[in-house]
Amino acid sequence: xxxxxxxQISNHLVEHQPAQGVPERKKEKSARRLRQFAxxxxxxxxxAAFLSALADRFGxxxxxxxxxxxxxxxxxxxxxxxxxxxxxxARVIPAVAWAATVAETTFALALILGIYKRVVTLGAAxxxxxxxxxxxxxxxxKAPLDYSVFGASAGAFLLFVIQGDQKDAE
Length: 170
Description:
This protein is 77% helix and 0% strand. It contains eight helices and no strands. Helix 3 runs antiparallel to helix 5 and helix 5 runs antiparallel to helix 6. The radius of gyration is 26 Å and the shape is elongated.
């Protein structure tokens, strides 16, 4: 009875209870893993989308006119670039087509490899926003919405924000 009255038993019970905060740490670890998975998933999805468009303009998905092929070669891609950028002078269209190709190649590889993430995600977001804006000007708002170009741009921008949050946390 004395030990109960003196508080020794209650102190003993407190010492053997699991440390508080363990469920919170598990939740934080789980949330961190989920965020890392989402980041990698989005990076690979965006990178793969860029690579698919690149493959199409160089005929890797098939020749022009084949079902499921948008361009089939660079000449048809350049014609499409002229339609998307109908507000630009015709003489700059080849340069625009090549600039888009170089940018998409760079972003695709860097996104998939996970390098220069902060710069690459912002660049990809801006390129996709420019593309969506050009589509809107030339074809109307429905085209970039139907092809989820604004959504892809927003996803790339979200990756940019996540990279900043992770940098701030370090």
